[in-house]
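Notes continue from the previous slide.

Worked example: a multi-chain complex. Inputs as given:
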Amino acid sequence: MNWTETFRTGGEAIRTHRLRSALTMLGIVIGISSVIVTVGLGLGAQNEVRNQIDSLGSNLLIVSPGSSTDGSGMRGGFGSGSTLTLEDADAIADDEVAPDVEKVAPVVTSFASLVNGTTNWSSQTVGATTDWSEVRKRELSTGRFFTDEEVTSAAPVVVLGADTASELFAVGNPVGQRVTVDGTPMTVIGVLAPSGASSTEASEDDLALMPLTTAKRLSGSTSSSVSTIYVQAASQEALSAAYQEIHALLSNLHGIDAQSGMQADFSINTQDSLIETANATNRTLTILLGGVAAISLLVGGIGVMNIMLVSVTERVREIGLRKALGATPRLIRRQFLVEAGVLGTAGGVVGVALGIGTAVVLPRFIDQSVDVSASATATAIGVALLLGVGFGVYPAGRAAKLTPIDALRSE
Amino acid sequence: MTVIRLTDVRKTYAMGSLEVEALRGLSATIEVGEYVAVVGPSGSGKSTLMHIIGCLDVPTSGEYLLDGTDVATMDETQLAAVRNRKVGFVFQQFNLLPSLSALRNVELPLVYAGMGRAERRERAAEALRRVGLADRVEHRPGELSGGQQQRVAVARALVTEPALILADEPTGNLDSTSTSDILALFDELHEMGRTLVLITHEPEVARRAERTLQIHDGALVEPVPA
């Protein structure tokens, strides 16, 4: 008897016992679909974090000032100090000192109220240089960025974030219009395209971007300190070299002696380190949920074994007859293994379909995307087949061992 | 030519600590084309003899030649092949698979013989035609009467062209009309030169055979001439 016949016979048996076959599959279906969904949830969360962090720019290093110590000796957290300066940024931009750095964008951030006629809106102001758009990978939906001349001359021009623009200018093109920023009139020269991702602190789409010098003048500050320095490395591979160069350079400029245990007054984050931190929690959760799903798969497999054993007991006469007609123990074993394997695979396919369906529907109810990967799907179906066959071995062996007389005699 | 040669066949079963001797040195010969009835009261060793003749079981000692092949020492896999090629079974309970059509039921031994699908279907249809069920090939056992079901079983026993057709109480579950129907079919097969062994406890069924082997307490009683 060849494989085609074995599969045909297995198919006949499965069709004959429809309800039982469906129940056998159910355990596998639930197991596989929950694995698909939980792994998909984990992947979705990771991809979301990656997208958010990628949206900051590519090959990005973020240099933040260190802690500050005020007059009373109270120390602030990282980022509260004003230890980074424009001179630091210029030094990092030097090709001799830091050859792996492509572009540098120092920014000063603050908050200001923006007024257009009777409409007012409070948002973050970002003072930047012309490289900002490239380092941060931001594009304009309309208008233009400011120029180097406008940076030098501290021109009163502003580029609005997409959300900011729609808050201040409900109708019409904001480009060419005037807004008042903390009492200073400025001309809107452009509107940023939406970034597509929201950072945890403030929306990347709610900001007023202006030349760094303009922002300085607005705040009345004469110091050269900056809030953050965004650095674009020459390539993905150059990230760690750039990190080393910046670290050494700033330590030197700020007189930090690592040997004597002095703490650096700045910190450098890469996208990878941000992604890593964010993913650590996601991964733990995915492993936990995946573990629960794997247990349900195991239970599903035991369900297959259970029902196959019942099936063997119930079909004793059939097995006896088949043996009387010339089926060898091997063929009987093979037939039951094929049945279990077909049930497992069918359960896997249905489970994958259910999992993908859930992955499509679930994001409409919860704020979390579910990404189903093709490799996870293929693995799931393979695992289902293995589960069916694996847990079918014992029942199939029992069937093969039955002697035809005992099998035929039983009523 | 001899189809069955049993020489001093013994069969012992272990029933717990008790050993039960079902066959005690039975010898018999059945020639090609014979129609033989094996009769005896229940517990006489009739069923055990049938199992051994049908290669469903092997004797504890003694020799059994089926169609020239020594089957007494074969293992389960070899016995399966012998059953498939040399023996056609007809059971009291018909033993048809309820989910399969008559044709597919008759096909089954050919499937295990490894025959191709087209030839299989042709031969199964031919066997069903021979038992008078040409118009019932696609019916399932549940849609057939008891007599018709047993005729399907006979077709299944015929389809491999076996050396021996072995019927175990074939009329035990049938009404009198169906019984004479099946017995007439056996007569026909006998006339066509088939070797038939029929196990029964009904004397009127046994009388249809050419020869009767009377079994009692695991051994043959003096052969009764037909």
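Summary box: The first helix of chain B runs from residue 46 to 53. DSSP finds seven helices and ten strands in chain B.
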